[in-house]
């Protein structure tokens, strides 16, 4: 776009030229310098959660801060092109705020769920770490507003998750609640935390069977039916019970179990797949 500066003429004009759009089936991809998982603290929770634009982002810049770290560079600007996770984070935060305007009654967990379950799938070809690089996929605000189903989690659920790998003292410091951690059969497992993603650690080269328990809440249409679809992975067999969830009202909840069976994975490797609950409209 070219034109005269409005400070030099009262009749400022600009020309916008037609751009050329090129479809790249591999796009978007995660940039090489982006931080990747595994989650070193709790591998049962896949990190990152989701991907968002973070390369060459034009953003507001402190007018008193130098552009470069060089002491000889005294330039100051109001806007600058920046890259990194620090630029993807405000995109994700703004997306969450946008969804909140449509659903002010939703919890943070529901908003996160809507972003994760409606994300664009990303190509693994040039992205070796897979989900540990891009999470559930690339953020898609058009579909996130109406996810149909959400994975809800309360404050108590998060405290129970903390209790699965921290002692009572640390959990109380983090939560601010003087509630003792559950013991025995009530203790639960971090893999069963009602998170939109599912992950478990298995012994290498050893056959395994893992059960994930999840609950979804209907936030779409009162009368709706969802069918489970699995994107297969040759390394594991996956079964969902029940395969169909039927809802009669809004905010109704249904529970299901995902069973993953494998004959053993090489040390340091992983298998991944996707579970899609579809009502046939998307």
Automatic annotation (TrEMBL):
Keywords: Hydrolase, Protease, Serine protease, Signal. SUPFAM superfamilies: Subtilisin-like. InterPro entries: Peptidase_S8/S53_dom, Peptidase_S8/S53_dom_sf, Peptidase_S8_Ser-AS, SBT, Subtilisin-like_FN3. GO terms for molecular function: serine-type endopeptidase activity. PROSITE patterns: SUBTILASE (PS51892), SUBTILASE_SER (PS00138). GO terms for biological process: proteolysis. The keyword Hydrolase applies. Residues 192-281 form the Subtilisin-like protease fibronectin type-III domain. Residues 30-126 form the Peptidase S8/S53 domain. Pfam families: fn3_6, Peptidase_S8. It comes from the Eukaryota. The keyword Hydrolase applies. It is found in: Secreted. Belongs to the peptidase S8 family. This is Subtilisin-like protease SBT4.3. It comes from Prunus yedoensis var. nudiflora.
